[in-house]
Write a structure and sequence with these properties.
Layout: H1 6-25, E1 36-37, E2 44-52, H2 59-67, E3 73-77, H3 88-97, E4 101-108, H4 111-117, E5 121-126, E6 138-139, E7 143-145, E8 148-150, E9 155-159, E10 162-166, H5 171-193, H6 198-201
Parallel strand pairs: 2-3, 3-4, 4-5
Antiparallel strand pairs: 1-5, 2-6, 2-9, 7-8, 9-10
Helix pairs in contact: 1-5, 2-3
């Protein structure tokens, strides 16, 4: 059973963004920044479904589309192997299965088709090379993922700034702390517009310039 309601959480997460949520979490939730959206403006806030592919082999992805709960985002470890693990056919299959996005440390292809379909994908690279379908190291089991740990049901938030994966038990606290941070920063920006400085507002030490 999920520890949070994604319909209530997703708009709050989108309003705050990945950077604020990372700072608010106080945890190692950030994913390698080299994994980027393949089209600008892509956004995901959804429960993670982790899986692991062998290098150059995408069988685990096909199995995951049969097993992942509706509303999930697939989080795919490939050992950072760049190949076309995912393309238009799997995108159509994912949308039919109710999967809402993909985050993969490998490669994808058919970029224009995915953007046209409005399917958010974050990947390490793009590659025309296809894959075989022979082995599936893990599907749905916890995995380390490029700087974060991911367990099925953890909240993944991905936007133009980056990707964070927040443990289920920390989601509500992170959102509350994130809103407090957002409010503080909003007040600071209002003060800056009134002529105050970041040195003053943040209590930074002034360095004397030698004459």
């Amino acid at each position: 059973m999920s520890l949070y309601n994604i319909e209530a959480v997703a708009p709050r997460a989108k309003a705050l963004g990945s950077s604020t949520l990372y700072e608010a979490s106080g945890l190692p939730t950030a994913v390698d920044p080299a994994i980027r959206p393949i089209w600008r403006g892509a956004f995901i806030a959804a429960p993670a479904y982790p899986l692991e592919c062998s290098p150059g082999d995408n069988l685990a992805l096909h199995l995951a589309l049969e097993r992942a709960p509706k509303g999930s985002v697939l989080v795919v470890s490939t050992g950072n192997f760049i190949a076309g693990y995912w393309g238009e056919v799997l995108t159509v299959a994912a949308q039919a299965a109710g999967v809402v996005g993909l985050v993969i440390d490998g490669g994808v292809r058919d970029i224009q088709a995915m953007e046209k379909l409005g399917f958010p994908v974050f990947a390490r690279g793009v590659s025309v090379k296809g894959t075989i379908k022979a082995t599936a190291p893990s599907v749905g089991e916890p995995i380390p993922f490029n700087g974060a740990q991911v367990v099925a049901g953890d909240l993944l938030v991905a936007d133009d700034d980056g990707i964070v994966i927040i443990p289920q038990a920390e989601v509500e606290r992170t959102l509350v702390d994130g809103m407090a941070r957002f409010t503080k920063e909003t007040r600071m920006m209002d003060a800056l517009r009134e002529g105050r400085t970041t040195v003053e507002l943040m209590g930074l030490k002034r360095q004397e310039v030698a004459q």
